[in-house]
Amino acid sequence: MAVALSPTPVSSIDPFSTEFLADPLPFHERLRELGPVVSLDAYGVYAVARYAEVHRCLTDWQALQSGAGVGLSNFTTEKPWRPPSLLLEADPPRHDAPRAVLSQLLSQRRLRRLEEEWKADAAQLVDELLGRGTEFDAVTDLAEVLPLRVFPDAVGIGPTGREHLLPYGDFAFNAFGPQNELVTVPAATIGPTVEWINTQCLRENLTDDGFGAQIWAAADRGEITPQQAPLIVRSMLTAGVDTTVTGIAAVVHAIAANPDQWERLRADRSLLPRAFEEAVRLESPVQTFFRTTTVETVVSGTPIPPGEKVLMFLGAANRDPRRWADPDRFDLSRDPSGHVAFGMGLHQCVGQHIARLEATAVLGALLDRVSAIELSGTPARHLNNTLRGWEHMPVRVTPTAG
Ligand code: OVM
Q1: To test the ligand 1 pocket, which listed residue (85, 95, 165, 314) has its Cβ within 8 A of the most ligand atoms?
Q2: 238 alpha carbon – ligand 1 mean position (Å)
Q3: CATH code matching the domain that covers 10-399, chosen among 3.40.50.720, 1.25.40.10, 1.10.630.10, 2.40.50.840
Q4: Torsion of CA 74, 80, 86, 87, to 10 degrees
Q5: Which of 130, 313, 327, 374 has its CA 20 to 30 A from that of 338?
């Protein structure tokens, strides 16, 4: 007897509503439990929230393209808010030359010369904070400060106007969602910020020793075209600030909320890289991305027609109990590798070594200087259609004696 295909479960959950963004975890569980593929009737899209299906969609770049945009908007029918990214919103073969340039530039080996400098910057920052007292805001005094001190200089942009960086990233990540108030309100005033970002990407506005200049040098060598160079610099300025702020905040939150794990880290500093990885698994700073089917695609038995948007819940996959034991626990005993917080496959975050360098510099500076860190108030979330971060995170630290 033929087995009847069960119909794709339909859900009215709106993953971009205030209620969802303020507390996504219960919604993630409902979405995972509904089935391997769910249809979201609020937007007419398919969605995957389990690890296996998210992994599958991330790695099948031929059936699930990025070139039609990785937000809700379908670039084949709607005009994007800015010229599409040559990395994020492109597929092979056009994706590959820009990707090769950036992955060489941002490789672990090439970043080694920044490590000592950034560690010293993080140490200086934590010393400044401790000089002012034992309570500070881990978001506005720490997680936002370190990236803005080290990253724009490393790219080689000018000293003025850097206050545009965070609002630009915040807007870009909101723009992957629907045209809700998180988009329409800032859209009215974002013009000068977009203008400033685009201006920084020009060769004459970049120092001659930063990542920006090296992207232009790749154009001189013929690895990319001169038309592509400013857009690749733009990718660094779009994806490189708010994300690392959120990642640093995530690891500080994890250790402040789990004193037993902080003690383990104090006893064994070799766990420091794992602490960051486990924190990004748990928090998934980038919560979602879409793909668009190029052909009819069967995902775990569910046929998805061509031209459909598929929403991948990275944050839900990173807490899927089918993949992770005790998934909601921040646990330095676990091996968090395989998490999809940086994506997976062809588009996996090209800047992830920068993120690790910044976050482990901050964490190392704290380990060197404080014996305890705890939340001294309730952290306040910053809502964004794509990023899950904080506005404020009050913490109290105990400086190490001597
Ligand atoms: C980009 C980019 C890449 C990753 C994330 C992102 C706004 C942007 O290439 O511009 O988020």
Answers
A1: 85
A2: 6
A3: 1.10.630.10
A4: -60
A5: 374
